[in-house]
Amino acid sequence: MFRIGQKVVQIKKSPWRSLHLGELGPSFGDVVTVRSVGPGKCGDLFLRFDEIINPPLYNTDPTDGFREARFLAAHFRPVVERKTDISIFQAMLTPSPVTVDAMKLADHAREIVG
């Protein structure tokens, strides 16, 4: 679902509780670029981002050693990028030929005035 280089937006509204002193994390609504994707011990998927590079800190779990903060992928969704298409507006600016039958228009006007 996630890949390196992909733009994602944070959908988690509450602050990151797992950050240590000196570490930074994205905020709700931030659009960031995925730098790495990796699994956690419980099968969860975690992300790191180009825009946020934290110093490696010692993790209390001896199997992890020093590591950089990572963020649970479930708190992000891919950004949908749409190409801009202004062709409909250009068509509105292009005049189209209109044919009017003057005789029918005059007859209609006489009927209204009556």
Question: What features would you highlight for this structure?
Answer:
SH3 type barrels; 7 strands; two-stranded antiparallel sheet; 17% helix; five-stranded antiparallel β-sheet; 114 residues; alpha+beta
Describe this structure in words.
The protein has a domain at 7-82: SH3 type barrels (Roll). It has two helices and seven strands; from the N terminus they run E-E-E-E-E-E-E-H-H. It has helices spanning 87-93, 102-113, and strands spanning 7-10, 31-39, 45-49, 57-58, 66-67, 71-72, 76-78. It has a five-stranded antiparallel sheet with strand order 6-3-2-1-7, with no helix packed on it. A two-stranded antiparallel ribbon has the order 4-5. It is rod-shaped, with a radius of gyration of 29 Å. The protein starts with 6 loop residues before the first strand and ends with a helix.
Strand content: 15-25%
The appropriate CATH architecture of the domain at 7-82 is Roll
Uncertain parts: none
Structural class category: alpha+beta
- By CATH, the topology of the domain at 7-82 is SH3 type barrels
Indicate the overall shape.
rod-shaped
Order of helices and strands: EEEEEEEHH
| Backbone CA Rg | 29 Å
Overall average pLDDT: 83
Helix residue percentage: 10-25%
